[in-house]
Task: inverse folding
């Protein structure tokens, strides 16, 4: 297929350029200043409002299959990812059975390839068998089957000796350990951030220290083992400061945050809004500002969604019984663009956090917009305004506090494997 892209803004690592692209058989054949003739072209994109990014990767997604297909399955998750503008996602291990053995990893790889949906699915395997924090998985087998990272996400590995050994073992495979950093003894039974709102609602709070202590421990273990360690869903001011200092010290650590932590505060749960119940919980304005600062100064490497679908019957009940989590794949682009509009990031840095960094952390080749490179692209309209209505959601679940909210910015095409995929409105 011959694809021509004229008059679009191209976001590369060396800057933003208005250029024209010619793609043939999946390869970027030409990047030129002059529009390319449309003769013999199978698909033409010509719209000066659009921007071309290297393909986006969401490195923190819960697909729920196998085991919880009523919340999400691999296919619906891929559809939501495509609609959100992703060319790849990485999925967490808290399925049933848990992705703690090569058969499950293999299943996820095969199933996601069979759907034909152009979103690569990279499984993240568990650190410990059954996410129980006791016995380390067979990392070699899992890597061979396609695992790109190890995480007990949802559950911290409480035993520091086991986590230390897992980190040491992971070095043989050059695969990151992704830490859900939380001191469970402090957070237990907590529902939302501990503070004014938890007092007002009479809900048990989760103190920020539960995350901060968890992160401190995980940083110290990263320092001790020199393993490649990535901290998931950072949500507090002090967490950012700890990671900033660790990086300055030269510790091999990376981290991510999610749109809910740079846009929302604990007030979102007022009225017992279970769609805003997440772990880690939404924090305070001060934390939101510190997360933005961490994104700006490079302390926070990646923006990921922590897409966590849950069925309405589970969310629509008593607050204490509702599971933690919100979906996020389809809102990642408009919500991340908010950072550009607020002056926190520019488009180039946004591309780093949505494409280059997550690929690098997971040991995958980052897509590059350069002649001779494979065309793996996300094309967005940053100005497009739309409303997140239920019928736009491609996920099986619609648990998001952004439901019914106005969004600005949307993916309109992805290009992958030599084909163009038009994203429905
Ligand atoms: O809110 C969350 N939901 N946080 C996690 O760590 C796990 C996730 C889930 O699996 O639902």
Result:
């Amino acid at each position: 297929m011959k694809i021509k892209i004229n008059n679009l803004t191209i976001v590369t690592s060396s800057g933003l350029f208005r250029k024209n692209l010619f793609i043939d058989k999946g390869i970027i054949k030409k990047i030129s200043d002059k529009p390319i003739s449309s003769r013999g072209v199978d698909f033409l994109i010509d719209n000066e409002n659009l921007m071309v990014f290297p393909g986006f990767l969401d490195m923190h997604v819960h697909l729920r299959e196998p085991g919880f297909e009523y919340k999400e399955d691999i296919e619906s998750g891929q559809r939501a990812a495509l609609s959100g503008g992703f060319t790849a996602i990485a999925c967490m291990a808290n399925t049933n059975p848990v992705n703690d053995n090569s058969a499950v990893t293999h299943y996820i790889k095969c199933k996601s390839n069979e759907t034909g949906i152009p979103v690569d699915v990279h499984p993240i395997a568990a650190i410990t068998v059954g996410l129980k924090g006791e016995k380390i998985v067979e990392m070699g087998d899992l890597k061979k089957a396609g695992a790109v990272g190890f995480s007990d996400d949802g559950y911290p590995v409480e035993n520091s000796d086991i986590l230390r050994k897992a980190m040491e073992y992971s070095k043989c495979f050059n695969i990151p350990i992704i830490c859900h950093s939380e001191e469970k003894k402090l957070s237990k039974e907590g529902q939302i951030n501990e503070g004014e709102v938890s007092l007002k609602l009479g809900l048990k709070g989760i103190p920020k220290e539960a995350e901060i202590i968890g992160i401190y421990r995980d940083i110290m273990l990263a320092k001790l083992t020199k393993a490649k360690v990535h901290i998931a869903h950072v949500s507090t001011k002090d967490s950012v400061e700890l990671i900033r200092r660790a990086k300055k010290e030269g510790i091999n650590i990376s981290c991510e945050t999610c749109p809910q932590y740079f846009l929302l505060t604990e007030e979102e749960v007022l009225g017992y809004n279970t769609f805003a119940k997440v772990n880690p919980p939404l924090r305070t304005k001060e934390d939101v500002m510190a997360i933005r600062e961490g994104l700006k100064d490079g302390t926070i490497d990646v923006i990921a969604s922590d897409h966590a679908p849950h069925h309405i019957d589970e969310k629509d009940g008593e607050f204490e019984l509702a599971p933690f989590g919100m979906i996020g794949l389809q809102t990642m682009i408009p919500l991340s663009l908010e950072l550009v509009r607020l002056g926190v990031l520019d488009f180039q840095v946004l591309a780093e956090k949505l494409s280059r960094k997550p690929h690098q952390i997971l040991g995958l080749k980052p897509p590059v917009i350069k002649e001779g490179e494979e065309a793996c692209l996300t094309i967005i309209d940053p100005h497009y305004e739309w409303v997140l209505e239920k019928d736009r959601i491609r996920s099986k679940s619609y648990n998001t506090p952004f439901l019914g909210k106005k969004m600005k910015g949307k993916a309109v095409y992805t290009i992958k494997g030599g084909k163009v995929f038009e994203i429905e409105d």
